[in-house]
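Could you join me in thinking about how sequence relates to backbone shape in a protein? Would you write everything just below, so we can both look at the same thing?
***
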Amino acid sequence: MKKFLLILSLLFCVTTFSQISTDTIASQSLGENRIITVSLPASYQKNKEKKYPLLVLLDGDYLFDAFNGALSYGNYWDEMPETIIVGIHQNKNKERESDCEIDDATGYPIEKGTKFFDFISTELLPNLEKKYRITPFKTIAGHDLTASYLNFFLYKETSPFRAYISLSPELATGMEVQIAKQLSKVSSPVFYYQSYSDKDLKEYQEGIKILHSNILTIKNENLHYKQDQFIGASHYSLVLHSIPNALYHLFETYKAISTLEYNEKIVVLPSDYVSYLTKKYDDMEKYYGVRTPVRISDFNAIESAILKNKMYNELEELSILARKNYPKTMLADYELALMFEQKGDLKRAAKYYQDAFLKNEIGQLTKDMMFEKTDSLKKSFAKKGKETEQSEITDAVEEKK
């Protein structure tokens, strides 16, 4: 019963995470009205200064709920940033085929396919940027026909999107070569994810496999690429398998330091643990346009690596970072106290533990803990002082003899 209630509470959190509304855009490019569904994060109205990444969904009719649920769940565990989601309604097979109309010979959009591209580029995105607080990190996602179509934005010299999620794409003519060519030239971070199933049509699988091989030859540190093949999944169930993988690929840098990351990337470093942490959060801002305070769990991970490798001087760097992120808390003074304690300077360690006692508690650091550390160290160096004094008296008596 308790497990059932926990599941219900988590589902409640997911469904209440965002504020969902429907809007209509009068498109001059298309000469018609287009319906979009918009999901705003729960914090959107509370924090008037905060900006959010944007996810644009082609086939928004059926992809919206799946992506919204996955992002809500990821953010609940602080593994994905809050994101504005916009789903473009394409009425399943009624409008999507004409929206994605291409010339089979050239592999480029024609007729309404060109107009739909202009609608997204010159009407939808400017409208959204004017209406909502959006960071430069924009993602576009689609399934089969629309998964192929979204690549045309990558063809442009300057694309409005930094991330692409292509689910079981029906690649247009020449895309196996053209996509790889474009990805090889990106000069700023770009994330590209594609997936397919062994149950997809063989001709579509063949194109995806060739594209995958071509992308693997690319040597460009700005490209962040991942492909998944799902065995036994249908063309449609593949979507539910793909979405979490795609989103975790995009937001890999956003996540807190995991046990795996700590063991394989951090504790094995010879030094510069604080630099690793600083770069992680700088990259987070560079990729997603999101700046957040360094997580306390990440402070703990770096502190642990420093202690394990006995690089105690780096605790001073960690203290500087703590004071910048949490100036009113005891964290910065605690790191300095810990450094002096490890180096054997008990008087200065006690002083900083005492200073920490006067600040706000944070994480596992409490006033009781700071008081006990101060009291313990004062007794230690007082005892040490008496022992030193007694030793000096004994030495003096021995000299007189």
Remarks:
- The mean pLDDT is 91.
